[in-house]
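Why predict the complex rather than its parts? Because the way molecules touch one another can change local conformation, and only a joint prediction can capture that. The input here totals 734 residues.
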Amino acid sequence: MMRFASAGQVALVAIVVLYLAAVYVLPSQVWMGFTINALVVAIIALSWNVTGGFGGMSSFGHAAMYGTGAYASAVLQVQYGVNAWPAFAAGIVAGALMGAFIGALSFRYGLKGSYFALVTLAFAEVLRICASAFEITGAGRGLQLRLDPGLATLQFNSDRTLTYTLLLILVALVMALTAWIKYSRFGAYLVAVRENEDAARALGIDTYRVKVVAMAISGAFGGLAGVVYLQLWLFIDSAVVFGVAISVAALIGPIVGGAGTVWGPLIGTLGLHLLGEGAKTALHNAPGLNFVLYAIVLIVALRFLPQGLMGLAGRIGAFGRKGGSDA
Amino acid sequence: MTHTINRRGLLKASGAVALTGALMSPAILRAQTAAIKVGVLEPLTGNLAYNGNQCVAGARFAAEAINAAGGIKSMGGAPIELVVVDAESRPEVAAAAVDTLVEAGVCAFTGSSASALGLASSQAAAKYDLAQVFSVGTAEAIVERGLPNVFRFTPGVEKISAVAMENLGLLNAAAGNPVKTAAIVHEDGPFGSQLSGIVEEALPQLGITVVEKIAHPTPHRDFNNIALRVKASEADILIPTNYLNEYTLMTRALQQQRVDLKAIYSVLGGAASNIKFVRENKDMAQYVIDCNHWYDPRKEQSKALAASVAAAGLDMTYDVMVAYAVIQVVADALERGASADRKAMIDALAASNFDGSIMPYGPTKFVNGDNVNSRPVNLQVRGDEIEVIFPEEYATAEPVFPRPSQG
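Output of the joint prediction:
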């Protein structure tokens, strides 16, 4: 995973790992609660990274997969009394199917770039409206899981340390799969599609299939994030899981952290959340100013760090190979 | 006669001075008593920021009034200190913010302007045995989870819609049943969808037929088609359930399209009980009726609150009133329990029979966390004022129903 990493990147990753470990022993529970929230967003950021980072298919509507996963699981549990475990798996599958569906439809008609971005945004909006219109999804009232903590119901709200540990394992698992994709033949195909789709097709790569499969994998990760959110907070409504905010959160983490890298989405998401939380703590008497600071840092990062924090770290003490920025 | 100062005399004099000072200066004593921290978890940013900030203002006015009146007397006059945390209009942030409140040492907290936020925060607070007294949270799920730390002082959606329909029936009957058909316009989120569904089921029992039901998203800017559909339906009454901006645009479109309705009767409408709407849309607002949270305007504390809100240049909205009242409930629990311990606060709130709040409620009685003696009131815009028209014992004006023809 860390092949060709520079000293700067190793240091950056080490800081993140140390922080994640420190949360266990920090005297304040505030950091654990905040980090749990950040890790859920990190999963959807990792989801975006598969298509946006590796494949160059920048989506503005990853909430479509996130919300589909959450709603599929919630509907099964609330309306049909299905156990949380199969509902959890169904949410991931539903996210994957939604990703594949959006991909198949978009790529069949050759949508790419900003057109693809806009159509994903439209899908998320249509799903938001549908979720708020039909009885099965709570018709705008949202769906709430019955509070019943335990292993059988996949509710661990009463034990934050266990919740945090399970989330860390999930994030590590998604990152491992991301690394596997990155260094697999499929990952190479994806990068080829990103760099020059016509050339990739000329070399015999079935670019349509590659892109649809990437969307399905991304959708599965997105669905996973949505199901995790549902199991943590036990309540969803259309605005919460299909809203634009989650689509934006999905893409800014990888962009700031380093799109197309394994660690970038996690580092970017955690970094932005830490910045926001730090600003909120420092400016607690001026609500909203933390968002202003957040936005300024984001603009600066976008302007001066085209490869994100991983790219910046890659330029510090690079070894292994020039640039060393693909950790 | 000469006076000599010896050690014993000096000690006596010092003791007398100290005793006199203590008796004459209760304020100094109070200042020495540790403040009791009460949390206020509201959305100060995001799409619910207006309501959240109004709630914080209401809570501050209440804390100031309680402290000025001598603080919590059973605890040596301890003043209330508010710990305000931003829920950012996001459920997961509201839940995480509970950690901040616990570490700040609050004995209980109020909030959170929306059911989704309160559902998440109260659940997170349950593991700390930390009480949440809901300011606004109308979803019934709030009090259906069996959480002992949940206390909803204000009425939920089922009670509000039931009272609203009952009062509509009374108004209509008193006027000779001029209203026979209704159109429902609602926003398509959790709030509007749930309420409109209940109202749609209840209207036929009043002898009123629903001839049109129209959902719209939030935000929504062009209400001309909706106004034309309402006009075409020839409904006698319009029952809207949406937020302030949409409510304003909707009533403007109705006026422009000359839709002649016998009444506009909203449930938790937000706009007909919002003085900003009345101030900025005086003609359109006339005779609009709403069923909503509201205080008893005849009480002295209510009048004092209204004066404070006006002096601060704020809008007098139900958020301010409700937030003020829930701090009163918390203060009463502190007074009776004489303890800021979190578990003791839950016990004190569960046994609350407080009847000194600014709301038009009977003594507080929490059953499964829901105050069974809470109730909404009917309001009607009249001139520059929002008047209480129902129930009669709190009314400040006679209802005008149906309204005079707008043509």
